[in-house]
Known about the structure:
Elements: E1 5-7, H1 9-16, E2 27-33, E3 65-66, E4 71-75, E5 80-85, E6 88-91, E7 97-107, E8 115-127, E9 132-135, E10 138-142
Amino acid sequence: MAIVLTLSNHYKYQLAAKKIDLSADTLKIILMNNTFVFDKDTHATLASVTASQLATTGGYTQNSKTLLNQVLSEDDTNNKGKMVCSNVVWTGTGDGFGPTGALIIYNDTTTDDTVVGCADFGTDYTVAATATLTIKSIELDLV
């Protein structure tokens, strides 16, 4: 199932203002609680979404996962640029963690920790001890 990432307006501005370099910046991925609703206008920075991030517990640690192996490319068939990253995996421990219904990608290199965007899973996930939550085939469309 493909999950669509909604980009924040602040990210689009930061990209146009050359304050973001996707080939060099550190991007992080966090999980949100199941009541979080993304607003591309107001959820501009990490500080604006932190209250809805899952707590550090049961195998989830806040702000600990970095997107790795970013590959940027030009897609002339679909008329877009894109960035593809390696899978990200969380493994539950103890009582596990969740429920989570969305993820946020943010730029940890910008001075304000710019929110790149949010992917709503369309359902909630709770991860039990020893179970895993894997975000596969991460692809950010730069349209």
